[in-house]
Design a protein that fits this description.
By secondary structure, this protein is mostly helical. It contains three helices and two strands. A hairpin with a 5-residue loop joins strand 1 and strand 2.
């Protein structure tokens, strides 16, 4: 049995257990996700500096909304990649646990 661990956008960790078939996944969007996260981190650091510099609250809120939007769009890329590769593979192998874990991850992210 193999395991695949993911850190969700809300910071929680989900581990997928794969049965005796031991199938593996390939995520095609990993580099794109890492680039998006790096940009969001840089943007959030600039928002932190805005707060430190005493910038207008309205400006800070607008920039925080932009960071949140960037993170949501990153989550969409992760979800699409996960469905295309991991979930289709899980369905092929009858791995209902992976589907249940996806449902839980979506619920936490949307919640």
């Amino acid at each position: 049995m193999s395991e695949h661990t993911q850190v969700l956008p809300d910071g929680s960790v989900v581990t997928h257990s794969h049965g005796e078939h031991g199938h593996t996944h390939s995520h095609t969007q990993t580099k794109a996700v890492l680039n998006r996260l790096s940009r969001a981190i840089g943007h959030l650091e600039s928002v932190k500096r805005m707060v430190e510099d005493g910038r207008d609250c309205t400006e800070v809120l607008i920039q925080l909304a932009a960071v949140r939007s960037a993170l949501n769009n990153t989550a969409k890329v992760i979800l699409k990649d996960h469905i295309e590769h991991c979930i289709s593979d899980a369905a092929e192998h009858g791995d209902t646990e992976a589907l249940a874990q996806l449902e839980e991850a979506i619920e936490r992210f949307m919640g």
